[in-house]
């Protein structure tokens, strides 16, 4: 249970949001909000749009305060362009609502928007994000915002005046509502006349079609974005909604919306921190070959949900960070495991503990965890060396950590396996030698032969700790130093030379996975054979 109070950024926002909600709408559930556009693959970086309000909403729920996290799917937005890799003939759909565009070829989903929503919905489920999804297509086409649309159109001169504070050129006949053409479904329309008394609206479309409708009955159009957003803040009573840096420049939707929400819609702007960019490392090769972008599902392929949650929980929204698909993920997992040990031993600082708890659980309960979490880099090495062979893997895990079935090491084991298979280039994969490198063995001097004999003699302590002590200890023994000797520059050089020799003999290269792990994976008999002892 995370205690209330100033433990971390999440609890500070929760304090602020709860008291603001109590002031704005006493007794009503607190409303936090996110918005996503399913115009194409929803980039992993956009997950922050959902995780930031999720963490705050979750903290509010943990305190026993009713809270709803609205996730608006901006699926009534226009289809802007055909992404690379999709049949160019999709260009004929440009200008239609995303829900009116056919799904990409081969998809089983009803339309373009649903196709790109689906993997995000699955990822949010895995991440334990509880939210209320709202389709803006549904809202607009069933007339939910009728009064708000009529109000915005009535107040168009006032809206235009607000917008004109930020633009240099005057716009003729500003109109905040864009009809979708009744014939071609596209938004290539222009409003040619509007009667405030009757709400009769005339429009023409670039396709040649034109008609006059009554706006009071019209459900095939939407407010322009800069008006739509503040309208929904007021309509939904949103108290917390963060947004990306791109929304915060002068004249941008957040700034303009902040004025329109009060001046036109009689509402208030949410508490809305600006969140910084989330970068991705190590995906470049893969994304360019697949022709698409990293999505949250790609991250969940290689890391468990709590670890991905932790990345968002431990950084304030204004801090940028990177999600690693390269070697860095091993270091991330080391850090995560170290934090887990600190928490278990009661040594974690309050902010660390809060971030940890937010990562492993929500107000609804704990997220699925790996029963027996072996270090990720160890699992990655095992997956690398065994090329995923289940029998070999279970043998190594038994020697290593008394694990009897692979399920005890799952799902972390599967994540490490997928990382090795999907993100480690072939030239960095490890191939254990089948036969000893006789030529190299024959060329060794007496000291090197001695080091290999000491290694082979010490293989009896067949555990990760035992093998770690052994590989660092052999050069000490040879130098006549005690096992607990401080590492001098000479000793370090001797250790490096010894490790390089072992890598050469075992995998035919100068480097490789951590040696103790490599030894465990290779097995004592094969190690003896390859070092010629
Ligand atoms: Zn048309």
Please tell me about this protein's structure.
With 533 residues, the protein is mostly helical. It is built from 22 helices and 14 strands. It has a 3-stranded parallel β-sheet. A 3-stranded antiparallel β-sheet has the order 5-6-7, with no helix packed on it. A two-stranded antiparallel sheet has the order 4-8. Helix 7 crosses helix 8 and helix 14 crosses helix 21. The radius of gyration is 30 Å and the shape is elongated. The chain starts with 8 loop residues before the first helix and ends with a helix. The structure holds zinc ion. The site of zinc ion has 7 residues, from loops.
Summary tags:
14 strands, 533 residues, mainly alpha, three-stranded antiparallel β-sheet, 11% strand, single chain, elongated, three-stranded parallel β-sheet, binds zinc ion
Summed up:
The protein is mostly helical and 533 residues long. The protein has helices at 9-24, 47-62, 112-126, 136-141, 146-154, 156-164, 225-236, 253-263, 284-290, 296-302, 305-313, 328-344, 350-360, 376-386, 390-401, 412-423, 438-442, 446-458, 464-478, 489-507, 515-522, 524-530, and strands at 30-36, 67-73, 132-135, 177-179, 189-194, 200-205, 210-214, 221-223, 243-244, 274-275, 278-281, 321-324, 361-362, 365-366.
Outline: elongated
Catalogue the ligands: zinc ion
Helical content class? 40-55%
Gyration radius, in Å: 30 Å
Please count the helical segments: 22
Any low-confidence stretches, pLDDT <50, length ≥5?
286-291
Biggest β-sheet strands, sense, barrel: 3 strands, parallel
**What is the number of beta strands?**
14
Intertermini distance: 55 Å
Q: Largest sheet, order of strands side by side?
A: 1-2-3
Q: Report the average pLDDT across residues.
A: 93
User: What percent strand?
Assistant: 5-15%
What is the structural class? Answer: mainly alpha
């Amino acid at each position: 249970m995370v205690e209330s109070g100033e433990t971390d950024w999440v609890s500070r926002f929760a304090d602020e949001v709860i008291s603001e909600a109590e002031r704005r709408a006493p007794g009503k559930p607190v409303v936090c909000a996110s918005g996503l556009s399913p115009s194409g693959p929803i980039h992993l970086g956009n997950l922050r749009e959902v995780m930031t309000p999720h963490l705050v909403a979750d903290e509010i729920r943990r305190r026993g305060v009713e809270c709803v996290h609205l996730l608006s799917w901006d699926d009534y937005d226009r289809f802007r362009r055909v992404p690379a890799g999709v049949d160019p003939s999709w260009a004929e759909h440009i200008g239609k609502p995303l829900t009116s565009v056919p799904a990409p070829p081969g998809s089983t989903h009803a339309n373009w928007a649903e196709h790109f929503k689906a993997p995000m919905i699955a990822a949010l489920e895995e991440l334990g994000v509880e939210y209320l999804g709202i389709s803006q297509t549904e809202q607009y086409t069933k007339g939910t915002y009728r009064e708000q649309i009529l109000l915005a159109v009535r107040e168009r001169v006032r809206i235009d005046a607000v917008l004109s504070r930020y633009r240099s050129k005057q716009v003729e006949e500003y109109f905040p509502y864009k009809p979708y053409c009744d014939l071609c479904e596209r938004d290539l329309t222009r409003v040619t006349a509007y009667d405030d008394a009757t709400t009769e609206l005339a429009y023409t479309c670039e396709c040649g079609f034109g008609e006059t409708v009554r706006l009071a009955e019209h459900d095939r159009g939407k407010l322009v974005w800069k008006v739509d957003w503040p309208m929904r803040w007021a309509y939904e009573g949103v108290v917390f909604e963060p947004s990306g840096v791109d929304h915060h420049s002068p004249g941008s939707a957040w700034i303009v919306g902040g004025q329109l929400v009060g001046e036109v819609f009689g509402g208030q702007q949410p508490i809305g921190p600006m969140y910084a960019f989330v970068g991705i490392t190590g995906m470049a090769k893969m994304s360019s070959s697949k022709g698409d972008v990293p999505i949250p599902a790609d991250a969940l392929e290689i890391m468990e949900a709590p670890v991905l949650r932790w990345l968002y929980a431990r950084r304030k929204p204004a801090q940028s960070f990177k999600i690693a698909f390269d070697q860095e993920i091993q270091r991330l997992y080391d850090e995560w495991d170290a934090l887990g040990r600190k928490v278990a031993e009661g040594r974690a600082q309050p902010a660390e503990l809060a971030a940890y708890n937010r990562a492993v659980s929500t107000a609804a309960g704990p997220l699925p965890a790996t029963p027996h979490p072996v270090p990720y880099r160890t699992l990655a090495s095992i997956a690398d060396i065994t090329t995923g062979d289940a029998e070999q893997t279970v043998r190594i895990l038994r020697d290593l950590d008394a694990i009897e079935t692979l399920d005890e090491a799952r799902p972390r084991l599967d994540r490490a396996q997928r990382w090795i298979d999907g993100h480690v280039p072939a030239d960095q994969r490890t191939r254990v030698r089948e036969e000893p490198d006789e030529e190299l063995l024959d060329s060794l001097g007496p000291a090197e032969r001695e080091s290999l004999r000491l290694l082979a003699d010490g293989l009896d302590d067949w555990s990760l700790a035992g093998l770690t002590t052994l590989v660092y200890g052999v050069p000490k023994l040879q130098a006549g130093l005690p096992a607990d000797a401080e590492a001098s520059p000479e000793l370090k050089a001797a250790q490096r030379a010894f490790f390089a020799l072992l890598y050469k003999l075992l995998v035919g290269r100068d480097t490789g996975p951590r040696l103790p792990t490599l030894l465990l994976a290779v097995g004592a008999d094969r190690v003896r054979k390859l070092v010629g002892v």
